[in-house]
Design a protein that fits this description.
mainly alpha
Length: about 50
């Protein structure tokens, strides 16, 4: 039985996984999405302090 990490690695090396990674990179190149992600990280960091 393959571990979860091995299954994810196999998926990402296949054609569908590569398409998904490329799509994610294109989305993260957009400044609006970068700003949203920074806001999300900030909220998560603030939540951990309590």
């Amino acid at each position: 039985m393959a571990t979860l990490a091995q299954r994810v690695r196999t998926f990402l090396q296949g054609p569908q996984g590569r398409r998904l990674v490329d799509q994610g990179r294109r989305q993260m190149a957009k400044p609006e999405n970068q700003r949203r992600l920074r806001g999300l990280f900030t909220r998560l960091q603030n939540r951990r302090r309590y």
